[in-house]
Amino acid sequence: MQFGVCTSIEKSPVMKEAGWDFIEEHVQNLLQGHLPESEWKGMERLRAAALPVYAANCLVPGAMKIVGPEADLRRLEDYMRVVVERAARVGIKVLVFGSGGARKVPEGWDGQKARRQIMDFARMATQLASARGITLVLEPLSRKECNIVTSVAEAMTYVKEIGQPGFACLVDSYHFWRNNEPLEELRPAVPWIRHVHVSDADRTPPGNSGTSDYRPFFRVLKEGGYDGPLSVEASGFNAEVGFARKVLDYLRKEWEQA
Question: What pLDDT is recorded for position 238?
Fold first, then answer.
């Protein structure tokens, strides 16, 4: 099991000192698929990395629509070619397809058409990513943040229909708990889960609120054989060694006791 933090490359020395294994960056901050090569500074920033940049989230900006009448698959493909090529150069292994603003279904838009648009994007992006050894993971989001792909069970319908090893599922404890998803719906999905996000139910770092018990959640993952990466995606993560180490120790204990 490897534990990481969603944070910037510049904070990776602190995370390394605290004992973390990797960091997860932000696509819009690091890979910047909308920028021409002459303006991209990602490789320069990478020189400051004290840990591997294993994953990157926030794949598509909200203004670049995947669903709805403004969606342009050719434009999305041009964007994804740049993102994937830069991700490969950085050494990223996982791209997280959450992007609630980009995939949100506009009012009055046909639900089945929305699903086909997400499928078309996912197939295209998976083909590009797989060619560079990168896995695309679909993230179910809170129903308060998006109105499509809002449960692990729903995400799995996309994963199974596409049926490619380079397209898998992510589970995020925050969204999972916020949507009141039953653990029994997580269990059959575990073989297809390739990445995990965690935070307390109020989106603060694990252990911060004192009200979130990760052990039942972790137990289902462990029983299903999950031993992949786990990233903390939380607000208010203090970039100090003592705090970062405390969060990591808490997570390790919860995992061991699950």
Answer: 86
pLDDT at 111: 97
| CATH number of the domain encompassing residue 119 | 3.20.20.150
Q: Which region, left, alpha or beta, applies to residue 67 given φ > 0 means left and ψ of -120 to 50 means alpha?
A: beta
Number of folded domains that form the chain? 1
Amino acid at 123: R
Q: Token pair of 99, please?
A: 């992007």
DSSP conformation letters of 54-119: EEEE--S-TTS-SSSTT--HHHHHHHHHHHHHHHHHHT--EEEE--HHHHPPPTT--HHHHHHHHH
Does 16 have pLDDT greater than 90?
A: yes
With tokens 């086909």, the residue in question is: 116
Nearest in space to 172 (alpha carbons), one of 95, 233, 94? 233
Query: Which stretch of 43-57, 106-120, 138-152, 204-218 has the lowest confidence by average pLDDT?
Result: 204-218
- Reported as type and span, the H/E element at residue 215 is helix 215-223
Q: Helix-strand-coil percent breakdown of the chain, rounded to 5?
A: 45, 15, 40
Structural domain range at position 32: 2-257
Identify which of 157, 234, 156 has the alpha carbon closest to the alpha carbon of residue 202. Answer: 234
